[in-house]
Design brief:
The chain contains eight helices and no strands. By secondary structure, the chain is mainly α. Helix 3 packs across helix 4, helix 3 packs antiparallel against helix 6 and helix 6 runs antiparallel to helix 7.
């Protein structure tokens, strides 16, 4: 038999998960979709550049959000220490995590026989799916009813479709 983890540690982990904020994931997915649209409007990007653009944009926006949290809201409330900085960095990390699936989609696109334009469309679809998924996960974690989960997923799908329309209008 395996020993179970310390009950207090399990309780802290459960509490942290219960208070997880998926806003960064939704935002990061929208950001990734927007990066793909913006890059596509500028022309065809080599895959490595598109992957780096997605990941580095996620990191830059993550840093911006961390800075805003630490020196905007947090500074007025309490003194900054290593633990506060660590928590803010961790809480904002979903912005970066949301950029990974579209970047991976670009990376695997040659295996699917896609040209760079097809890779961009795949990355855009993955980003929109992520946006919908993060919003549904947030609603689920908050204890929302199935109709409310469907509504938030639907709203995020509509926003994602607006980004798709933007891509179509910019590239044609």
């Amino acid at each position: 038999m395996f020993k179970t983890a310390d009950p207090q540690a399990r309780a802290r982990t459960a509490e942290r998960r219960a208070h997880t904020d998926y806003t960064g994931g939704v935002y990061g997915s929208m950001l990734s979709a927007s990066v793909v649209v913006g890059a596509g409007a500028a022309g065809s990007f080599p895959r490595v550049q598109m992957m780096l653009l997605l990941l580095l944009t996620g990191i830059v926006f993550w840093l911006g959000h961390v800075h805003a949290q630490l020196f905007g809201a947090r500074l007025a409330q309490r003194r900054l220490d290593r633990q506060v900085v660590w928590h803010v960095c961790r809480d904002e990390w979903p912005i970066v995590k949301a950029a990974v699936p579209p970047a991976v989609a670009v990376a695997v696109s040659p295996l699917l026989g896609l040209d760079p334009q097809g890779a961009a469309w795949l990355a855009l679809a993955v980003a929109v799916a992520g946006q919908v998924g993060w919003s549904a996960a947030a609603a689920r974690r908050a204890g929302a009813s199935w109709p409310l989960m469907a509504a938030t997923a639907g709203v995020n799908l509509v926003i994602g479709l607006m980004i798709l329309v933007l891509k179509i209008s910019l590239t044609h």
